[in-house]
Write a structure and sequence with these properties.
The longest helix is centred in the last third of the chain and has 19 residues, at 295-313. Helix content is 35%, strand content 24%. The chain has a seven-stranded mixed beta sheet with strand order 8-9-10-7-11-12-13, with helices on one face. Strands 3-2-1-4-5-6 form a six-stranded parallel beta sheet, sandwiched between helices. It is globular. The protein is of the alpha/beta class.
Length: 314
């Protein structure tokens, strides 16, 4: 299967690393921003064609799909562009930074019939899969999901330490992971939501601290703390407080509440959540089915984000 990678930044390269482990797929073009950077990454991964023109990339012979890792504010326009060109699309999280744009992507999917999947990696991390499988089997019941998303940010740079052309956001980007995961793990939509934010950074113009609370109709709660002011271990830590045990996940790793490691190596065919989400995208195309984390499935998370944003403004 021939695909196009859109975006040459840190996350685009994470996808390229994962795709190297999947048989039957070939990245035939890399489309991105600064052409010098695009060329460098294309040569690093042996991609034969690179361009700053997405239409040119999509027109390459045999292309069936594209993975979007471009700046968030471009997601909606590019996703619609890809689908109208007759290609399937996977859109990195968040699929958009507004509910209106998320709905626009879903409408394009309905009009074109092309697969539209969101890159909600938490659904695919083996640690979260392990918990999900036991919830579905009735072995666990989630009572409280407590999440810490901590970074230290003073400049607008990406994971590689390079300048970003867009500004990161605690709500629409980082909270999106947890909001979708909480609703996915409970199988319910949050009935109560609330949010608080700290002062905005004078240069970045974004809130540097945020607190989010959610509750679903069955009674399970989620408490999410986010900060760009944290000095110490960075990343996101998920504590599942269940009726039978506590489990702590950090990306693809899992321990119990007493720090005993849990082997999740047999949960799926890989320990790389991004590789696993790419496998799902490609399998859905081949099998002509809706993927896990389709745009339709993650739209409830976008609606909850919209409610939280409105609560902040009020």
């Amino acid at each position: 299967m021939k695909i196009v990678m859109v975006g040459q930044g840190a996350f685009g390269q994470k996808h390229l690393d994962g795709l190297k482990n999947i048989d039957g797929v070939e990245v035939v073009s890399l489309a991105g921003g600064r052409i010098e950077s695009v060329e460098t990454v294309a040569k690093k991964y042996g991609i034969p064609h690179w361009t700053s023109n997405l239409d040119e990339a999509l027109a390459r012979p045999g292309v069936e799909a594209a993975i979007l890792t471009s700046p968030t504010q471009m997601h909606a326009d590019k996703a619609v562009q890809v689908m109208k060109a007759g290609k399937h699309v996977q859109i990195e999280i968040p699929i958009a930074d507004s509910l209106a744009d998320a709905k626009r992507i879903l409408e394009a999917h309905k009009q074109t019939g092309k697969i539209a999947m969101a890159g909600h990696t938490r659904r695919f991390n083996p640690s979260h899969q392990w918990v999900h499988n036991r919830i579905v089997a009735g072995e666990l019941k989630l009572q409280h999901l407590v999440v810490q998303t901590f970074f230290f940010r003073r400049k607008n740079i990406n994971l590689e330490g390079k300048p970003r052309s867009w500004t990161d956001h605690l709500l629409w980007h980082h909270a999106c992971h947890t909001i979708d995961l909480f609703q996915y793990q409970t199988g319910e939509i949050a009935s109560h939501v609330q949010a608080l934010e700290g002062p905005k950074h004078p240069e970045l113009k974004i809130a540097m601290d945020m607190s989010i609370g959610m509750k679903v109709p069955s009674g399970a709660c989620c408490t999410l703390a986010l900060s760009f002011n944290n000095e110490g271990p960075l990343g996101t830590f998920f504590r599942y407080i269940c009726n039978k045990g506590t489990y702590i996940s950090r990306y693809d790793e899992l321990i119990d509440g007493n720090n005993n490691p849990i082997d999740v190596s047999k949960v799926d065919v890989s320990m790389d959540g991004i590789e696993l989400q790419d496998r799902e995208f490609l399998a859905a195309i081949k099998e002509k089915r809706e993927p896990n984390a389709s745009v339709a499935q993650v739209l409830p998370a976008m609606k909850t984000l919209d409610r939280l944003e409105k609560s902040l403004k009020s």
